[in-house]
Structure formats: C-alpha cells, structure tokens
C-alpha cells in the first residue's frame, strides 16, 4: 500500500471551521478557548512549514492544556497532529497510537469532522499491510458515511479514492472501479491537482489491467500533467512508472524506457527529500525526548531539585550522542548519494547501449516477419492458379491423353508449394504462430493421397512404396490432418531422396489408450542410412546429411519441421539407423474420434443445397477467378466476378447475392476495407475471405471488418463447400427469423 495516500492534515479553512464549531459547542471562558486556538494555529502553521519539531511541541502543549481544561475536541485535534507528524517521519506505530487517541476524544466531543479524519487516517495506517487491508477499507467506509452525512465532497472523495486505491493495490481491479467512479464524481465538486493526479493514476492502472491501452494512456498522461502542474513529485513518480509499464505491455520499449527515466528522476527528488525527512525525524525524536524530559523535570522539581540536575546531565549526554549520530548519518548519506549517482550514470550508459541493440534486433525480426508474410502471398497466389487449373484439367475427359504430363505438372506444383510451405511453416512455428486445428478425417484416405503424390518420385528413383495399415483403426478420427499429412510427406520424401533401387515401408498400428486411439507410425527404408554421429544433427534447421554435389532438391527443413510439429501433438520422433542399413523413423499420435461426423452422403446433400445460389467472386488475379468460378459452377451455382474493391461495392449495392468470396490483397482498396465499406449498407450478406494470407497474420482484422469466415488458398473443395454452405444457411435462418418477427 502506498504511504502517500490522501490523508487529512487540516488546511486553514477547515481549521477555522473546526474552531468555530468548538466555539459553538463549548461554553467555556473566552480566554481558555483563545489559548487553545492559538496553540492549534501554531501547530498547524509549523506543520505546513515542515517545522515538525515546533509543530510537535505546540501539539503536545495543546493536548496537555486541553486535558487540564476538559476540552476533548482540542485533545483530539492535538493527537491528530501528533499522529500526522509521526506518519510523516515513517514512525507508523506511534502514528497509529495517536490516531486512536484522536478517535477516542473526537467521539467524546461528538465532533463528526474529527471522527471522519480519524477513520481516514487509521485507514491509511492499516492499509500499509496486506493482512490488515480489510480493516483499512472498513475505516475508509466509516469516513465516507460521515462525509456523506455532513455533505463534505472532499471527505467523500478522499474516502472513495482510498478504498479504490486499496483494491487496486490488492489486484482487485473490478472491485476498485465503482469507487474510482464515485471519487471522480466528488472530485468535480472539490478539485485539486494532487487528488486529480492520484485518481487519474488509479484509472490508468485499472484500464491497463483490462488491456484497454488507449484509455489507460489518456489517464496516465493526465495524471502526469496534474502532478507536474501542482509540483507533486511523489504522484509524478508513480504516474511515470505506471505509464512505463503500460508502454512496455504494448511493446513500445523505447517510449517505456523514456517514461522509466522520468520516474527515476522523480525518485531522485523523493530520495533527496527523504534524506531531509530522515534527518528531521532523528532531530524530532531527539527533541521530543528532550521536551518530555523537561516536562518530567518540571513536574518533579517541587520534590527534588537534585533529580532535575541529574536529568539535565542526561540530556546533555543525549545531545552530544545525538549530534555525533546525526553527523555520522549525514556523512553516510553524502557518500551513499555520491556513489548512487555514479552507478546511475553508468547504468544509464549501459541501458542506452542495450536499448539500441534491442531496437536493432527487433527491427531485424520485424523485417524477417514482413518478408515471410509478403513472400507467402506472392508465391502462394500463382501456385493456387497452377494447381487449381491442373486439377480442373485432370477432371476433364478431353485431356485423357495428356494426363501423364498433367500429373507431372501437378506434382511439380505440389512439390514447389510444399517447399515454400516448409520455409514459411518453420518461421511460423518459431514465432509460436502455429496451432493445431483438429477436424474429422479418414486416415486411410489421407495415406492414399500422400502415397499417390509420391508415385512419380518413386518411379524416378526406381523405388517401391509399401503400405500396411491396421484394420482396427477407425475410419473417422479427430485431428489436424494437414499437420499429419505434412509430417508423413516430409518423412516419406526424405526416405525417397536417399533411397535408390530400394523399398520404403509405411506402417501404422493401432492400440486403445484410456479411451483414445494411439497410432504408431513407422517409416522405414533400405537406403544409405545415417551415421550415428549425425543422427541428432539432421533435425536441425537447414542441415542435410550426405548431400550429393549438384543435388538441389529439398530445403533441408523437412525433419526440423517434423520434430517441431510432433511437439505440438505432444509427441517426439525416434530414429534407428546406421550406414548401409537404411533408416527407420517412428512416432506415436494420440487421437480422438469425432463427436459429430459428416458422411459422404451428407456432403453430397450440402453441395446439392448450393445449386442456383448466387455468389460474387472478388479477386484481382484472373487465373484465380477462373478456378474459383469453375469450382462453384460445377455445383450449379451462379457467379459474378470483379477484380477490385470499388466494383465489388457497386455490385453488392446493385444486386442481391447469397454470398461474397473476398480476396484480401488487392490494389487500391484491399478486401478488409472493401468489406468494411459494404457493411455500412449491407449487414446481412455473408462475406468469406478467400485468401493466400494466413489467418495468423491477419488476426482479428477480418472479423472486426465484418467478415463472417475465411478459407485459405490453396484449399480443399470440400472445405470450401462446407464453409460456403454453413454461412449461407446461417444467413437464410437470420432472414427468416427477421421476416417472421416483423409479421408477428
């Protein structure tokens, strides 16, 4: 808990008000009240002039005289000042004791304002320890109830502010918020820069916890402005520290560092003032002991003059020792401060160097990420056209005689896409940008497709592919089939690359494991084999063992990607091999069965429901337009096509579509901005992003712009149909519900 929370030393106006209330409440002799008022004035004036010793002296005299004259209200005010002085010099135990005395005599005098101060000050004392936080909040609430009954905005604001502060310090941000809002309302009635700075600082901490960084920034800046305008060094230090932590959370390291320097500058000022405070505290402690000794001596003077002389001797000894201690303390502080400044200067230089190096490293990392993102789209887009057109041509009966060449073309395109994806995939895994996406799949069909993709490569190296799958494996499993395919493609491709005139065996066995299906994969070859001393290295990035001269096939990333993808599955790759004896790679995957399976018949039903639907295709690439249009029209859908965002906006305004397929990267106005413009006049038509840019790179931008879903190119046709059907069905349902509601 911060020790500089709002406290309640009396200002001059409040002081005069209290004196006036005392005047009305007590009908004692005028000269008695004048003496008490004079002592109270002097205690107040000396405190605000930071003459704590003199203020303490007048406060002690006030308590003594008020006790003799039976004025409990003045006793309470004297103890209040003594408590404030001890709190100012960090003697918390004595501060608490005097605040409790203040509360006792304030209740005797039935002075609600003094009672309110006592509750608030005791709240500050108990709020400095986590174990007494609840007791602190109870005191603040009592102070607020009195302030509300008396209709004093300053007291209500202070109590609400302190309760909110206590919850913020405890990390209970939601519980703090209503109290901060109440304090804000009362502050408007009785504004001052210190309270305003503290309140803005607490709002900054609250919105930082909610990750609402824009609001948090505004409040921290206001807190800094108020603190500096009012010369409040402690508030400025806290505000800059909070602002620095906010900037750091947003990744603005340079700005966070600058704010931290401002915090340190203010801390230096606080440090200097604390040195003075500690010296003053030592002096006060000594002077108070001296004053108490004098009081005791004067009381006992009638009984024993000799005792008074002895007390005086002790006082002289105490003065001498105190002076020596103070001198040594001052010398130590001087040396410590000089050493601190040297260290801070050296640290500042080192921090500057580290910050510059860090900024360079971050710039390089951003450049790398931007490069991968750009090259991803630029390479995937033309490959989508190559693979898509090849697929369409292979399905045509008129090109049967050229099917062999088309098969080779498609394999080359698939291979090039795989090579590019290797590089991009490794970058995404390194950046924690890859997560598993479990979907229903058929392991038998997956393996069939993987093996079929390697038939041409196997024939070139005169290899034979053997497949053995356990018949007990369920036909429908739940898992990330894309990542499993990628693992198998890399391992089989690696085996084919280093095996000539040989065999490659793929086997998958099945075993139940606590209600789940454990699949054991084995990829074995009788090729060159891998030396024992190289078997760990082959899983490192870009390393290829036994690479032949002029062999340019492969990226050297396949096994590194396999290892990292299996880590996502919670599995690991194992290798058994030796020179001339081939190699065997094994791993296990633990998979579920899908809760809701979609059968072949259901998929046919879906595509049947898409007939006669009208779709707008927005894509600046002509080949992509042809491929997408052909895929949809084969299912009986009607398509309009445009190649830029402006035409797309016009077409949606002039026509009624069941769905819009929107490319993201287009000249002039991209797909996100185009969708945002469409949503200004059409909130019902589903818009699906059909893009080569990964969803990890786009984040929430798609959905914030108003898009309903996305499909990543190159895509599986069945996936495209499922996404299209799902979104058209949802739109139909919403439209039907709206019509029904209006009719009723």
Automatic annotation (TrEMBL):
Q: Start and end of every Histidine kinase domain? A: 374-593
Task: Fetch the PANTHER family from UniProt.
Answer: HYBRID SIGNAL TRANSDUCTION HISTIDINE KINASE J
Q: Which positions bear 4-aspartylphosphate?
A: 663
Alphabetically list the UniProt keywords.
Answer: Coiled coil, Membrane, Phosphoprotein, Transmembrane, Transmembrane helix, Two-component regulatory system
Q: Which domain of life is it from?
A: Bacteria
Q: Which Pfam families match?
A: HATPase_c, HisKA, Response_reg, TPR_8
| Coiled-coil region(s) | 281-308
This protein's species is Sungkyunkwania multivorans
Q: Which reaction does it catalyse?
A: ATP + protein L-histidine = ADP + protein N-phospho-L-histidine
- Domain (Response regulatory) spans 614-728
**InterPro entries from the entry?**
CheY-like_superfamily, HATPase_C_sf, HATPase_dom, His_kinase_dom, HisK_dim/P_dom, HisK_dim/P_sf, Sig_transdc_His_kin-like_C, Sig_transdc_resp-reg_receiver
EC number assigned by the record = 2.7.13.3
Name under which the protein is recorded: histidine kinase
The transmembrane segments are 315-334
């Amino acid at each position: 808990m911060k020790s500089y929370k709002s406290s309640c030393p009396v200002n001059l106006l409040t002081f005069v008000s209290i004196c006036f209330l005392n005047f009305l409440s007590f009908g004692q002799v005028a000269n008695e009240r004048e003496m008490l008022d004079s002592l109270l004035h002097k205690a107040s004036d000396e405190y605000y002039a930071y003459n704590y010793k003199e203020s303490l002296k007048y406060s002690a005299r006030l308590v003594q005289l008020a006790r003799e004259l039976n004025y409990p209200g003045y006793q309470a005010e004297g103890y209040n000042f003594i408590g404030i002085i001890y709190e100012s010099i960090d003697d918390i135990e004595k501060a608490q004791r005097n605040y409790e005395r203040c509360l006792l005599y304030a209740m005797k005098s039935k002075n609600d304002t003094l009672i309110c101060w006592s509750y608030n000050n005791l709240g500050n004392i108990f709020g400095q320890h986590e174990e007494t936080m609840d007791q602190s909040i109870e005191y603040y609430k009592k102070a607020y109830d009195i302030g509300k009954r008396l209709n004093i905005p300053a007291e209500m604001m202070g109590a609400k502010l302190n309760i909110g502060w206590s919850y913020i310090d405890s990390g209970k941000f939601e519980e703090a918020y209503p109290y901060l809002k109440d304090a804000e309302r009362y502050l408007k009635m009785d504004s001052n820069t210190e309270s305003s700075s503290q309140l803005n600082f607490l709002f900054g901490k609250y919105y930082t916890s909610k990750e609402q960084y824009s609001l948090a920034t505004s409040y921290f800046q206001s807190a800094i402005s108020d603190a500096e305008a009012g010369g409040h060094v402690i508030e400025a230090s806290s505000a800059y520290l909070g602002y620095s932590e906010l900037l750091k959370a947003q990744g603005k390291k340079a700005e966070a560092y600058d704010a931290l320097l401002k915090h340190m500058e203010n801390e230096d000022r606080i440090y200097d003032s604390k040195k003075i405070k500690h010296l003053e505290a030592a002096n006060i402690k000594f002077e108070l002991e001296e004053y108490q000794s004098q009081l005791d001596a004067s009381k006992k003077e009638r009984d024993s003059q000799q005792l008074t002389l002895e007390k005086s001797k002790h006082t002289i000894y105490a003065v001498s020792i105190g002076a020596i201690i103070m001198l040594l303390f001052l010398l130590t502080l001087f040396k410590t401060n000089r050493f601190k400044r040297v260290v801070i200067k050296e640290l500042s230089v080192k921090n500057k160097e580290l910050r510059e190096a860090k900024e360079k490293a971050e710039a390089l990392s951003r450049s790398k990420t931007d490069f991968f993102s750009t090259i991803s789209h630029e390479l995937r887009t033309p490959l989508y056209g190559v693979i898509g057109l090849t697929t369409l041509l292979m399905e045509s009966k008129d090109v049967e005689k050229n099917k062999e060449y088309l098969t080779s073309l498609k394999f080359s395109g698939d291979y090039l896409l795989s090579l590019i994806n290797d590089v991009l995939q490794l970058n995404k895994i390194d950046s924690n940008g890859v997560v598993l996406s479990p979907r229903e799949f058929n392991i038998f069909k997956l393996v069939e497709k993987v093996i079929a993709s390697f038939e041409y490569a196997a024939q070139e190296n005169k290899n034979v592919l053997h497949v053995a799958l356990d018949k007990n494996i369920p036909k429908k499993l739940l898992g990330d089939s894309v990542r499993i395919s990628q693992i198998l493609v890399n391992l089989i491709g690696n085996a084919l690359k280093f095996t000539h005139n040989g065999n490659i065996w793929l086997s998958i066995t099945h075993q139940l494991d606590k209600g789940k299906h454990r699949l054991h994969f084995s990829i074995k070859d009788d090729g060159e084999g891998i030396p024992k001393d190289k078997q760990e290295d082959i899983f490192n990035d870009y390393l290829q063992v036994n690479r032949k001269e002029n062999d340019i096939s492969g990226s050297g990333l396949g096994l590194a990607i396999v290892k990292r993808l299996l880590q996502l599955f919670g599995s690991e790759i194992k290798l058994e091999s030796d020179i001339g004896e081939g190699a065997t790679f094994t791993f296990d995957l633990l998979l579920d069965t899908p809760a809701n399976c979609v059968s072949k018949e259901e998929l046919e039903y879906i595509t049947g429901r898409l007939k006669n639907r009208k779709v707008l295709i927005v894509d600046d690439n002509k080949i992509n337009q042809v491929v997408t249009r052909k895929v949809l029209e084969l299912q009986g859908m009607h398509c309009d096509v445009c190649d830029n965002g402006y035409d797309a906006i016009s077409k949606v305004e002039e026509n009624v579509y069941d769905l819009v397929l929107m490319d993201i990267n287009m000249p002039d106005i991209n797909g996100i901005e185009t969708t945002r413009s469409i949503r200004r006049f059409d909130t019902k038509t589903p818009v699906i992003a059909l893009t080569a840019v990964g969803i990890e790179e786009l984040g929430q931008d798609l959905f914030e712009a108003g898009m309903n879903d996305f499909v990543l190119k190159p895509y599986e046709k069945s996936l495209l149909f499922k996404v299209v059907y799902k979104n058209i069905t949802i739109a139909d349902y919403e439209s039907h519900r709206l019509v029904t509601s209006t009719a009723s």
